[in-house]
Amino acid sequence: MPTLIIDNQSVTVPEGTNVLEAAQQLGIVVPHFCYHEALGAVGACRLCAMLFIDGPVKGIQMACMVPAKDDMVVSTEAPEAIAYRGQVIEWLMLNHPHDCPVCDEGGECQLQDMTIASGHSVRRYTGKKRTYQNQDLGSFISHEMNRCIQCYRCVRTYQDYCGGTDYGVLGSNQRLYFGRFQDGPLESPFAGNLVDVCPTGVLTNKPYRFTSRFWDLQEAPSVCPHCSLGCATIPGARFRELQRIRSGNNPEVNGCFICDRGRFGYDYVNHPDRPRTPLLHGEELPWNEAIETLLQRLRELIDRHGRDSVALLGSGRSSLEANYLLGCLSKQLGCTAPVYGSHAGRDRAARAAADLPVELSASLADVRNSDLLVLTGADPLAEGPMLAVAIRQAVRNGGRVMICDPRPVELPCSAEYLPCQPQELPQLLSVLSQGGALPDKFQPLAEALQQAQRPVLIGASDLLGATGNTALLAAAQTMNSTERPCRAMVLLPEANSFGAALLAADGPDFEQLLEGMASGRIKALLCLEADPLADCPDRQLLLQGLEKLDFLAVLDHLPSLTAEKADLLLPTTALSEGTGTLINNEGRMQTFTKVFNPGEPLRISSQGSHPPRSFSSVTPGALPCQAWAILAELCDLPVDLTKIRRKLAASESRLAELPNLLAEGPGQRIQTGGKTLPQLPSVATDQVDSLQLLVCETLYGSESLSALSAPLDPVRSQPYLLLHQLDATRLGIANDDLVLLSAGDAQLTLPARLSDRMAAGIIIVPHLRNTELDIFYPGRQPLPCRVEKVSAP
Fold first, then answer.
1. 3-state SS, residue 485
2. How far is CA 540 from CA 249, 533, 545, 548, in A?
3. CATH, domain 3-93, list 2.60.40.1120, 3.10.20.740, 3.40.109.10, 3.40.50.2300
4. What CATH architecture is 279-343+513-614+621-646?
5. Percent of the chain, pLDDT > 70?
6. Are 267 and 629 in contact (CB under 8 A)?
7. Residue 568: is its pLDDT beyond 90?
8. Where in the numbering of this chain does the 2Fe-2S ferredoxin-type domain appear (predicted)?
9. Taking a C-beta distance cutoff of 8 angstroms, is the pair 500, 583 a contact?
10. What is the mean pLDDT of residues 641-651?
11. Rounded to whole angstroms, how far apart are CA atoms 583 and 523?
12. How far apart are CA 185 and CA 250, in angstroms?
């Protein structure tokens, strides 16, 4: 490890560290633009000049381009270096429009900061400025090309890091243009990261445009709730409204970037139909009466019908603390243990994933460093988008990607496809877990696994199910060794699915709860941020069961289908309005912190005017409470999150580090699993003659929170049906033809799309909420179906 001296301070850094990074470790602020910790250095801006006084390199050099070496003596304060940086910033500012008062980047603009840091204050150039036409880049990004300083960060992020292909640099010398060949929406699902990396106001957040200044926002470290990966985020709020999300930095998870679903899916918090007042049969009532009514009704039913007459339902989108207190409430009432998921198949699959021994669990950092990634039944862009970016980094580092899936899985990098039927996936993983020989069609995979030194097996619960998840983990355990570590990752459906599965343990699942409702044994149901009417695959049976209930209570912050039917509705806070803990798919505990207090956004309560024209001593819409606080009152426990976390850690040794977690940190893996996973027998693959309907998650429109976010409306998928070209030819179907899909009792007319990279005999439809396709549910066995052509486009 080289040791060098910068500004009379000695520092020792790892091999490969550049001098700019070494200076940052000492807390020395060095002006720079093109360097970014996730992108590295290219020496494009020339602003990080330092004077190298002694050592293997001497003279004025760009610090980001010089590797740190022993015996280097460097100065950032030498007059020559200061003068050089001053000249560079003056060149960069020659054509800048100086429109800071109307620029959305004002207050968080790196160009402002570095201009001042470089001592530039007077513009001497009096000639004409270089100007450009701006482009319409879609609904997420605003483009102001005249502000560009040609640092190349946007292109390196969009193309190199995230794999986008429709945005780049054109021109040469002083006429560089960063944009698309023509106007149009950016195609990458990671385009929003351009906002974070651009050091000026060229690329800004369009939904947030002209809304607030950076210094007016309330911000706090948080965790993204839109998938199970647990990316670090920083929400920003003002006027009782969540106005934007920007990426946090967690090197073990998402690094410096997030996906567009995580960035623009925030608006469910501001939804105008969101419940904000306790309601009993549609009538408002005070909180103390609501709590008393809930306890009274539940106790009355237990006294009259027995302990099995009350059921409690938690969820994977509720915090760890709230789900834990739901279990405490069941013990206090003396009723059956809670169910922690409205979809029994997904719940069982999550419980299987929670058995993963901690030493086998793969983080996104492990994925980025892998030399072979095997995707079996996982669609990263739909089920965990930042996993797709992590996979791309592995490929950029020389790794291989092999995909075994019936779907045409898209990735922002090269991959080798081995299409297979859904039924073949458990068989494939079972053979791997036993160290057996793979079928001929999977021989390329067998050869790749033999050569790999750091393989990672990646699956997803919806397609693999509980059996497939167990087989995946068993396969990783079989192939793992000290000399050649093998890791596993399972994508789960919700942000806290892992935590809910841990608490569920061997308890009941939703099928048992549904049977109890259908038989009339269960008289009351309490739902904690769960919407079984939207998530339970057997909606008709559930509706019949709900009709037989004497009492339905719902705690939620969404205008859900189940909340509409509730006898008692208790409004809870959204994630950015509270504090709590989530456990991501690798078993990493991460805390989120309150950003702002709940309240109806000013643009709604005051019809968009500020200051408001009517005044009150009560904040409109401020009644929602944190779910864990409501449950603590129901359990007659102190409403103190620190004490609740200590109580939870004491009751579950795997969560011992929970009280010590910091929201700013990378999180802490729990000590879970550890038992030897069972070796699975070979799974017979049944031949299926009919077409099979496979329901799959999609990037926009499937996830429950982002489905309520208005900024995502322009990119939300429309209903369609996907089939293999061979099947289409046999059925006489062309691309965009209208076809009639028949599955069970359902019949839908949908436009057809064709693909040759999927398994034949499979019909794929996306799971799209609030459309005609929301009658189909993911996480189930494929259904027999028929497809007939109705008409040409």
1. coil
2. 44, 9, 9, 13
3. 3.10.20.740
4. 3-Layer(aba) Sandwich (3.40)
5. 97
6. no
7. yes
8. 1-80
9. no
10. 96
11. 32
12. 29
Whole-number Å distance between alpha carbons of 59 and 40: 23
pLDDT in tens, 436-446: 889 999 999 99
Exposed / middle / buried, residue 255 (Cβ in 10 Å: 0-12, 13-18, 19+):
buried
Q: What is the pTM of this model?
A: 0.95
Q: Which helix (H) or strand (E) holds 754?
A: strand 746-755
CATH of domain 350-492: 3.40.228.10
Q: Are 314 and 530 in contact (CB under 8 A)?
A: yes
Ranges of each domain in the chain: 3-93, 133-270, 279-343+513-614+621-646, 350-492, 691-791
Q: Which residue has the tokens 């445009």?
A: 209
Q: Which amino acid is at 280?
A: L
Q: What is the DSSP string of 42-109?
A: ---S---EEEEEESSS-EEEEGGGSB--TT-EEESS-HHHHHHHHHHHHHHHTT----GGG-TTTTS-
Token reading at 702:
């499937």
Q: Is 249 exposed, middle or buried (0-12, 13-18, 19+ CB in 10 A)?
A: middle
Exposed, middle or buried by CB within 10 Å (0-12, 13-18, 19+), for 325? buried
63, 173 contact by CB (below 8 A): no
Structure tokens at 155: 């292109």
Map tokens 């077409």 to a residue.
691
Spatial contact of 458 and 282, defined as CB atoms under 8 Å apart: no
